[in-house]
Every structure is written in C-alpha cells, then in structure tokens.
C-alpha cells in the first residue's frame, strides 16, 4: 500500500477550491493553509507557458521531516502518509527546517501541522477533501502499488514530474503535463 | 529574455515569504554550547596530560562558566520551543537519525558531569566560605557545614565528601568521558544544521568540523582571557592562533564546496558574494572577528604588549556573529521548483 496523488496541470485552473475544502474539513486555523496554488510562468516573451498546480505535503518516500524529528512525533502511518502526533511534538521546528516544500507550519496551539492526505476520510474509503471537491477533476488519489488504481494508470500513461527531485526526498505527488 | 515567475497563494506565518522559524534563541544556544564544549575540551585535555596544576585556569577556574553557559543555552532553547510543556518527550526516546535527539542526550550527560567537575576543584579555588554571609553563603549552608581553620569548605553530608573523594580519584576517567562528550557537543552544534537537506547553505558536511573549531577557539579565548599565569596565557594564545587558521581554511573550504556544488548551493553562496550577508560575514566576522584577533595574538607572541581582553572579546564576538549569520542566512536559502 502506497498512497499517492497525480495532478493534471493541464486541467487545473487555480480556483483554490481544494484550499478552502481542506481548511473546512480539517479546521485549519485562519491565515494558514495545508495546501496552496502555485502559478509558474516560463519562457521568452511572447512565447510564455503558464503552469498552474495545487501543492501540499508530498508524503515523501525518503522523509527528511521524520528523520530529523527528535521525539518521533513526525511519523509514517500505513500507506506512507506522514503524520504528526500533537502530544509528542515539542515545537522545535526541525521538521519545518527540513522540508524542501515548506509544507509545514506551527499551529497556533504550538504543535506542527501539515497535510494528512485526509487519512480519516481515506480509511473510510473516501478521497481526500481537496480531491473530492475539485471542479475540473484534475486530481487523482489512490494506491500507487495497485497497477489498476486510477492514480497508477494516470502516472503510467502520462508525462509527469515531481517537485524538487534533486532534494532527494522521492515525492509521491506527480504533476502531469 | 527568459522569464521564470513563480506566484504562490500560500502565506503561512513564519514560513512565507521566506522561512523564519528560528530566531535569536538557536544561534545564541549554538554559541553557548560551542563555548561550553570548548572550555570542557581543554579542561579535560589538560587533566589527561597531567597538567592540572600547570594550567589551573583551564582545568579549575574556566569550567565554572560551563554549567552557567549550558543553563542559559537551555533557557534559550526552551524559549524557542512552541510546545514547551511537552519538552520531556525528548527524553522518552533516542532517535539516532535526528541530531537534535542525540544533542539533547549529550546535554543530559554533560551538564551533571560539568557540575561534578567543578565540585572536585572548588575547595582549591574557594577555601574560605562564610556561610552566614549573603544569599550564596546561605544557599551553600544546605550542603556545607561551618568549621574553623584554613579550609572550611566541608561537606555537610558524608556521601558528598565520599563522592568528592571518589570523583577526584577517578578524574582521569572522568576527563576522558568529558573529552568525548565535549567533542560530540561541539560537532553537534554544526551537524544540527547540516542535517537539513532542504536548506542548501546548511547542507554541507564541513559545518560540523567548522562549528567544532569555532567553539574550541571561543573556549581557548575565554581561558586565555581568564588566566593570570603567563605560561598558560601563552599556550592558549598559540592554540587560538592555530584554531583561527584552521577555521579560516574551513571557511574557504565551505565556499569552495558551495561554488562547485549544485545551483541551489551556488545561489546560497551568492548571499555572501554581493548578497545581503557580504559585509556582515567578510567585514565583521572574517576580518574583525578572526583575522584581526589573529594578528593581535601573533604580535603578542612576538613580544608586543597587547591587552589580552581585546583579541578575546573579538573572538567571542566573531563566534556569536558566525552562528547568527549561519542561522539567519540558511533559512533564506531553499529549493526553487
């Protein structure tokens, strides 16, 4: 079992619906975001290329945040989802410093907060909140180890990239173009 | 012209627009930890070499600063924690992958050992104590008893005097343990940063040795400053000269590695070559905090009379500044994708 996500940057319009859905579903404190939209413009004028993508914790295979956590609060659960145990987190910031994607932040209550792939929904067979609300259906979630899952089929059939592969983290979110 | 424009909708506090999770507490702690490691390293080394009476400042006096430095550093660390009531969770586990975890355990071991170290020699330093005088005297009354005579530093409880005798007898063994732990503490202050592969400026293995050498240099400067024995001043002046030269070589190594590295490290080095840390690093740290005291100490060794406080203060200033610059600048550097 290896949960992952495939995101179709050709279909994403940057509406931020996933951001709001996550904030509502997970009671994210006001002013913070566990997922966000990035717009990237590349090229030589007038031949510019725009890529819009929705980003979040990459639930890496090689997790710098779990490695540097001094108490074991940052840990992996079944399916490779990276989670934080609030009662073990001392708020030292080591995991925040170690994340190349800056996907973590201090919750106002002191512990470190981040995307959980909505594991409470996933364990009930549902998609994460962000995936389920996407109006253009640009996101695919599922088991990367199962070749018949929608996410595996997308990754197998499309051209894709991961973010900052040179950071050595083996991200599990694939951006298709 | 090739354009590359990245706009992010994220604006998390302390994360965006640039990461600023660690403030003044961490560099201050890294300095105090390095200083404590430096002082203990030389104290232990001189006991192992049988020089405890020859270099008594290094062995007996200077270590009194160590518990104070460690406690101040730990207070700074506690102030940095955002969830401090759970700080005990550090000692519920040992995580070998996490430098912060073995740093916490090293401090747990070295703090009581440094207090024992002081207890072994305190009688020689302060033979006469008036237990009725002031707050310190009254506090010490809890563990000391009033006697008359030249040396009235007498432990109130038998187990304390037995323990002191035992520790004094075992001081060479203790010195070996302290030597190893001090080295770990000194290296750890650098490895703490170099373990973060997401911050290209920190992600270099030279940071461990560089922080160790810098910590030893601040320790040697402190001993040199405190000493009133000419031979001891001379020895630690020489040690400091050697350490500063090694440190300068390591700094050159650091930037050679960056400039020969991947784009993110070349970019992070630019902060120091024309970027916002150029003056602070080369002007204040390298010239005022390293090269200037180096010249003063060489002149001193050549027979010129230079007040020892000047190079010592400059070296300590350089040590503080180095850690502040590395922590601040490192958090700016990142992967762009």
Based on the structure given, which CATH architecture of chain A is correct? 2-Layer Sandwich
Q: Report the order of strands and helices of chain B.
A: EHHHHHEEHHHHHHH
End-to-end Cα distance of chain B, whole Å, is 19 Å
CATH class division of chain A: Alpha Beta
| Biggest β-sheet: strands ordered side by side in the sheet of chain B | 2-3
The pair of chains with the biggest contact is: A-B, 51 and 49 residues
Query: Which shape of chain A, going by the Cα principal axes?
Result: globular
Q: Which architecture name of chain B does CATH use? A: Up-down Bundle
Q: Number of folding domains of chain B?
A: 1
CATH topology heading of chain A: Alpha-Beta Plaits
Count of distinct strands of chain A: 10
Radius of gyration of chain B: 22 Å
Poorly predicted segments of chain B: none
Descriptive notes:
The complex is a heterodimer of chains A (177) and B (337). Chain A has 6 helices and 10 strands. With 177 residues, chain A is α+β, with helices and mostly antiparallel strands. In chain A, the strands form 4 sheets. In chain A, strands 8-1-10-9 form a 4-stranded mixed beta sheet, covered by helices on one side. In chain A, strands 2-3 form a two-stranded antiparallel sheet. Chain A is globular. The model of chain A has no long low-confidence stretch (mean pLDDT 96). Chain B has a single domain, classed as Formate dehydrogenase/DMSO reductase domain (Formate dehydrogenase/DMSO reductase fold). With 337 residues, chain B is mainly α. In chain B, a hairpin with an 8-residue loop joins strand 2 and strand 3. Chain B has a two-stranded antiparallel ribbon with strand order 2-3. Classes of the chains: A alpha+beta (177), B mainly alpha (337). At the A-B interface, strand 2, helix 2, helix 3 and strand 6 of A face strand 1 and helix 4 of B.
């Amino acid at each position: 079992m290896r949960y992952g996500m495939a995101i179709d940057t050709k279909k994403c319009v940057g509406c931020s619906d996933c951001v709001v859905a996550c904030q509502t579903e997970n009671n994210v404190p006001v002013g913070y975001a566990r997922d966000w939209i990035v717009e990237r413009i590349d090229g030589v004028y007038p031949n510019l290329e725009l890529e819009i993508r929705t980003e979040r914790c990459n639930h890496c295979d090689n997790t710098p945040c779990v490695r540097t956590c001094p108490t074991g609060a940052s840990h992996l659960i079944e399916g490779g989802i990276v989670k934080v145990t609030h009662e073990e987190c001392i708020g030292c910031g080591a995991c925040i410093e170690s994340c190349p994607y800056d996907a973590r932040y201090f919750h106002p209550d002191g512990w470190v907060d981040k995307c959980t792939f909505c594991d409470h929904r996933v364990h009930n067979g549902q998609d994460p909140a962000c995936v389920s609300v996407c109006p253009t259906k640009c996101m695919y979630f599922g088991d990367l180890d199962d070749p018949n899952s929608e996410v595996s089929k997308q990754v197998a059939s499309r051209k894709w990239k991961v973010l900052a592969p040179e950071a050595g983290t083996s991200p599990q979110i694939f951006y298709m173009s | 012209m090739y354009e590359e424009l990245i706009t992010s909708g994220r604006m998390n506090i302390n994360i965006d627009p640039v990461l600023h999770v660690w403030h003044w507490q961490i560099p201050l702690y890294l300095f105090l930890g390095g200083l404590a490691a430096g002082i203990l390293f030389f104290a232990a080394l001189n006991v192992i070499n049988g020089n405890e009476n020859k270099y008594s400042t290094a062995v007996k006096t200077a270590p009194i600063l160590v518990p104070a430095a460690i406690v101040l550093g730990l207070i700074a660390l506690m102030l940095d924690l955002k969830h401090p009531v759970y700080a005990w969770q550090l000692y519920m586990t040992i995580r070998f992958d996490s430098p912060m975890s073995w740093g916490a355990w090293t401090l747990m071991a070295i703090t009581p050992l440094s207090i024992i170290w002081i207890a072994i020699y305190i009688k020689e330093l302060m033979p006469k104590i008036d237990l009725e005088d002031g707050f310190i005297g009254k506090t010490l009354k809890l563990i000391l008893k009033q006697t008359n005579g030249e040396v009235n530093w007498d432990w109130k409880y038998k187990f304390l005097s037995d323990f002191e005798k035992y520790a004094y007898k075992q001081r060479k063994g203790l010195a070996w343990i302290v030597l190893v732990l001090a080295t770990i503490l000194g290296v750890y202050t650098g490895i703490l940063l170099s373990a973060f592969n997401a911050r290209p400026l920190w992600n270099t293995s030279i940071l461990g040795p560089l922080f160790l050498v810098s910590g030893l240099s601040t320790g040697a400067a402190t001993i040199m400053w405190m000493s009133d024995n000419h031979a001891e001043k001379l020895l630690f002046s020489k040690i400091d000269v050697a350490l500063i030269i090694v440190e300068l070589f390591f700094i050159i190594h650091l930037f050679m590695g960056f400039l020969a590295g991947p784009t993110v490290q070349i970019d992070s080095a630019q902060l120091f070559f024309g970027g916002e840390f150029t003056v602070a690093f080369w002007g204040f740290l390298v010239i005022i905090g390293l090269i200037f005291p180096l010249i003063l100490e060489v002149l001193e060794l050549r027979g010129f009379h230079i007040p020892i406080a000047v190079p010592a203060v400059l070296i300590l200033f350089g040590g503080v500044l180095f850690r502040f610059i590395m922590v601040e600048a490192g958090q700016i550097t990142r992967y762009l994708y």
